[in-house]
Design goal:
Shape: globular
Strand content: under 5%
Protein name: Tellurite resistance protein TerB
Number of strands: 0
Number of domains: 1
Radius of gyration: 14 Å
Organism: Planktothricoides sp. SpSt-374
InterPro entries: TerB-like
Distance between the termini: 38 Å
């Protein structure tokens, strides 16, 4: 049983349906919201502008900060009403296979802190990789792509 099963292997559900872009953003949001410094609870601050820029870039879609701020509120509401597992399940169910890399890359980017990956975040990402059924080789490629993207922004 993984530390983050309460999110990634939850049976919590919500009636809120997400589209595929929202699904990518929700998985990245969850990764950014997990408080790795404490008990793994959800609630850390997520930077909407960073998430918007990264998600827009990897999806090649123009997503506004205002739209993403509204979506983050929807994500928070789902977590408050049904739990973080419900948000993950809604995102997972809406995520087409071709966007799994984008979701994982968004999650990885949200976990990096000043270019470093905290131990708790690394554990979460391993469990997320398993949940999304991503091979080790693909995960390494996606991580390298995120680093290249972030280094290109500096």
């Amino acid at each position: 049983m993984g530390k983050y099963d309460f999110i990634l292997n939850s049976e919590e559900e919500t009636e809120v349906e997400l589209d595929e872009t929202e699904a990518v953003a929700a998985i990245a949001y969850i990764a950014g919201a997990v408080d790795f410094a404490t008990d793994g609870g959800v609630g850390a601050k997520v930077e909407a502008e960073f998430l918007q820029g990264f998600i827009s870039g990897i999806l090649s879609e123009d997503i506004t900060v205002e739209y993403l701020v509204e979506q983050i509120q929807v994500f928070k509401d789902i977590i408050d009403e049904a739990g973080p597992g419900a948000l993950y399940n809604a995102a997972y169910n809406a995520l087409p296979e071709e966007l799994v890399p984008a979701a994982f890359m968004g999650a990885y980017a949200m976990c990096l802190i000043d270019g470093d990956l905290p131990d708790g975040a690394a554990k979460f990402l391993v469990e997320l990789q398993e949940s999304l059924e991503i091979s080790d080789e693909d995960a390494e490629e996606f991580r390298n792509q995120v680093v290249a993207i972030l280094e290109g922004e500096e």
